[in-house]
């Protein structure tokens, strides 16, 4: 007879073994393959996978195959609570935006130090595309997501970040004048989006818009990133698309337009 809590322990072990299996696999695995590999009942395996997908630890693709989220493959980088829910809510929308625009889509949040933490991505299927690993952090002063996130942060926090960050000439296009950087950040708040055009990476451009939670707080930034020639050709369309989809993601997180902007 099982002791109290035995079933919970068994489920915990199965969750860990599913994650370990997916982390070892270089490609997405079907439910059938996972069941055959681990020897678990199909119904309970499906339910455990559904839970992992809902918490964004695992992604389910169009072919109903499962893969571990890139942020968790090599660890650390586990997320929980609001951040996990944000990723789970955003991923389907990001995939649809990627397919509609043909470009890579990122979701990023502001770290406590002001830099940008990449939370999720939907990589373009094009042979020539913009891409980045979900590891480390990116400077905020020269990236589209960073500028959006700074524009909705307390002024004293922004000032502290700019004083602390190394404002360096990353590319020939990087803006390093602090007065101009502040003007760009203010414009991002006024316009509802920010652009980085070859300022963080030569040949790479992108546009980002704010994502709000139910309280109206900006909790993330949605970003379309591409190679610069394609951005130049489709600039207005990409701006409109990222604003529209960031608004839709905010809506799915419970934000109402009548909520007071914070």
TrEMBL record:
Superkingdom of origin: Bacteria
Domain HTH iclR-type: 9-76
Domain IclR-ED: 70-255
Keyword field: DNA-binding, Transcription, Transcription regulation
Pfam family, one: IclR_C
Protein name: IclR family transcriptional regulator
Origin species: Mesorhizobium shangrilense
Upper taxonomic lineage: Bacteria, Pseudomonadati, Pseudomonadota, Alphaproteobacteria, Hyphomicrobiales
